[in-house]
Amino acid sequence: MTGSFKYRFWLFVILLGCAGYLTLGCGSNSGESANGVDPIEVEVGASLDAFFASVAARNLEAAMTQVDSNLQYYRAGSSAPLGYVDFTVQLSGFISKAASITLLINDRGIVADGENTARVRGILVCQYYTGGSLQTLQETCEILYERVSRWGIRSLSRYNQEGMSFPP
């Protein structure tokens, strides 16, 4: 190799390495993965999806594994937040009366409030059959998640802790 060729070769290798570094990045992205999605968003989204799938499957036990035992449940018509047991009773009654349940959150936004808390906001849409007719409940929702040993629903309400109608 001539001196000029070696110089151009190593310059090319260095420039190629710099381009790769700038394209792929290196190190931490403030908690974000390489594709720009916060891992907390993925984990909380998976927990919420598991809760919805369990309710749709009418599996109360599996659904309640996604709920923190210190739940604060803001129910429409209640003057104070209800707890885990009250929510279990409400959800159990809904599951036993409803068929073909579908739950989703339109415009779902998940925001980490720290390493161990996150908030999900959006429009909860619940469709189900009861008495042979399709029913639809649609309302704003705010779900606070907390991670102790795993992610769990810590608070369930409409925006600003207003009481909600879910479960119908």
Characterise the protein shown here:
With 168 residues, the protein is an alpha+beta fold. The protein has a single domain, classed as Nuclear Transport Factor 2, Chain: A (Roll). The chain is 35% helix and 34% strand. Strands 1-5-4-3-2 form a five-stranded mixed β-sheet. A hairpin with a 2-residue loop joins strand 3 and strand 4. It is globular. It starts with a helix and ends in an 11-residue tail after the last strand. The model is unreliable at 18-33 (pLDDT under 50).
Keywords:
168 residues, alpha+beta, Nuclear Transport Factor 2, Chain: A, five-stranded mixed sheet
Write the layout of secondary structure elements.
Blueprint: H1 3-24, H2 39-56, H3 60-64, E1 67-73, H4 84-97, E2 99-112, E3 117-130, E4 133-147, E5 151-157
Parallel strand pairs: 1-5
Antiparallel strand pairs: 2-3, 3-4, 4-5
- Helix fraction, binned, reads 25-40%
End-to-end separation in angstroms reads 79 Å
Mean pLDDT rating: 86
Query: Total number of β-strand segments?
Result: 5
In short:
The protein has 168 residues and is an alpha+beta fold. The chain is built from 4 helices and 5 strands, in the order αααβαββββ. Strands 1-5-4-3-2 form a 5-stranded mixed sheet.
